[in-house]
Amino acid sequence: MKESETKVRQLLIGEALKYAAHSSPNRSAFVFENKRLSYKQLLNRAQLLAGWLTETGISKGDKIGCLFKNGLSFVEVYFGASLSGGVLVPVNFRLVPNEVEYILDHADVKILFVEEDLLSSIEPIVNKLKKIEQIVVVGEVYPLLNKEVLSYETIFPMNIKGEAEELCDDDAHAIIYTSGTTGKPKGAVLTHKNIYINGMNKSYHGQSKRGAKHLLIPPLFHVAALSLLVTNCLLEGTMVIHREFNPEKVWQTIENEKINSMFLVPAMWNMLFQVRNYEKYALDSMTSCSTGGAICPLELKKKIMSTFKNAGLHEAFGQTEMSPSTTYLSGEESIKEGKAASVGRPSLNVRIRIVDEYMNDVPAGEVGEILYQGPTMMKEYYKNPEATSEAFKGGWFHSGDLVRMDEDGYIYVIDRKKDMIISGGENIYPKELEEVLYTHPYILDAAVIGVPDAKWGETVKACIVLKEDKQLSKEEVLEFCQTRIASYKKPRLIEFLEALPRNASGKVLKTVLKSQVFTEKSEGRIE
């Protein structure tokens, strides 16, 4: 069998692009600012990049780093790396230089693509990056000590085309580093099949139509956004990309581009509704609103559904190691009585178990850790066999998420296992109190953590961000909670903050909140 015939039988990321380019060559695949790239043009540029990478010495499995904000160059490098057989390592552009150094070194990155605007993250560490052989800069090029630097646009006139041979869908496709909220980040190795199947799952559950227009805003270095590039190809759609999150611009783009669908993490949805007079924009084109990446409060779900009247709400839940989605809640399910608070049922191609600490399945309605199996499950943690073995204990991936499942198979996220508070022997789940706080009309954002307590072991602290021009006392917060949650779950400490610390995925950095030391007086202890 010829090599080309073997590849088309595989679930490869490059093949997804080829299918779209064959079926809809002149359709706009990706739109960024004033530039539109058709599927035919994207495939051509991706193949030229793949040829250059191969010519430069990239073999199957070699690591290709990229330090980009959202844009067309990110999309091109993503598909170019896929066709070359290289493994893409997207780096969070918000990291400080020593954090960038750790990821590039740990991942054994051989070639690094970086934007001119982000060179400041490379310059202080460039002489330490011994494994990197070539740096390619999108934008103006200038010397970087002893590293060879190449201008991105000079690659394409070289007219070198080529692709990896004998590539199969179980080969590594990308290494996505976890947020590292506890210790050093781990590199989840995701295969071509992992991301391809996730794209198929997303297409199935999202109910998007062929040729739909999607607005992409979350950073592409995060797997929830990155995986949408493949979904877009599978649907032969048009994806409009924003470089950064600008709430006002989101409303304008929905109206001007007649956007059909959009994915935002809950924190972004929350900020979107803080724009003054957002009701003036035409939203009739929207047929699908998606959220995920963090737990979405029930009140926020209701706000999304009431604002986008023609759109269904689709919630995805999961994590990086599962490529990432594991459960879905469809628009119809979101309005079922008693189901809107759930994250839906298991995704197509994903098997789940909910177990106790001894890996015994728990009955419906009881809290346990959710475990996963399926073709979207990562291959391993890169160069970390101990963590890999622990994560796959018993042949299932251990998520660290505590959930319960009702009699109809709907899953309700209780909290992260590591975030659970044990106070006076009672288990307290922060999400439960956070849901209560989100229903207060003056509260914009909230996070609940456990802090050390000499008497109870841990006590409950609420960190609260108020809406603009709103005031609230600690006593009023406590009074609000009084009749809405059991007494032992109420906050004993309350702190008003200007903003909650979040990582690029929109998750609250509770480790940062816990590390902040306040005096008892400033925290406002309430007994």
TrEMBL record:
Residues 432-507 form the AMP-binding enzyme C-terminal domain. Residues 19-382 form the AMP-dependent synthetase/ligase domain. Keywords: Ligase. Coiled coil: none annotated. InterPro entries: AMP-bd_C, AMP-bd_C_sf, AMP-binding_CS, AMP-dep_synth/lig_dom, ANL_N_sf, ATP-dep_AMP-bd_enzyme. Belongs to the ATP-dependent AMP-binding enzyme family. It comes from Cytobacillus horneckiae. GO terms for molecular function: acid-thiol ligase activity. This is Acyl-CoA synthetase.
